[in-house]
Amino acid sequence: EDSEGRGRMSLTNAQLVRLEAGDAGLPLRDVTSGGGVSVEFYLSAPPLIANSQVVKVGGAVKTEGADYTLDDESGQLVFTVAPVLGTDNVVVTYKSVAVADSAIAEACRQFGLADSATADTGSPASVLEAAALVCDWRAADAAQDFDFDTDGQSYKRGSSAAAWTARAKAIRVRLNQQFGITSIPMSRLDG
């Protein structure tokens, strides 16, 4: 079950890949002051888990689409009407993630998973393969090194890269033990 007591099968493939990759989201709270003029703000730690945000102005909950738009990848928050002048009157709670939703969707696509479909429609092995791929990409991003080696040594320079590499390795061990699948690190193919 997840943290809200739902069974794993009620999650989408994308949510399950994110969970298996160890990126469940970090709860954050941004507070700023409305000035009555500006409608555009940026959250401090994008990307966000889609629909994880609660936006309040002056204590009143705002509705996405009607009162504001939010770009989960960039953290850009645009109100339809500028928040009134006040001190610390704009409060946004959300979950920030290390892996953007677009990367999760791409990993799902590469393993034939519909990212928005419920997890019971996809192969558990494919979910693990997609999660390992996401970890590979994060390790490379963290190390700023896109030269993958099958032993993972090329991106162990930083502790963040090493942590993502270790997650990928642990997932690959599970793939082999549970499904007899031997999976090697893969890189994102750009272009």
Question: Could you walk me through the main structural features you see in this protein, from its secondary elements to its overall organization?
Answer:
With 191 residues, this protein is α+β, with helices and mostly antiparallel strands. 31% of the residues lie in helices and 16% in strands. It contains four helices and seven strands. The chain has a four-stranded antiparallel sheet with strand order 1-7-3-4, with no helix packed on it. A three-stranded antiparallel sheet has the order 2-6-5, with no helix packed on it. α1 (13-20) crosses α3 and α2 (101-110) crosses α3 (124-143). The protein is elongated and about 60 Å long. Residues 1-9 and 146-156 have low confidence and may be disordered.
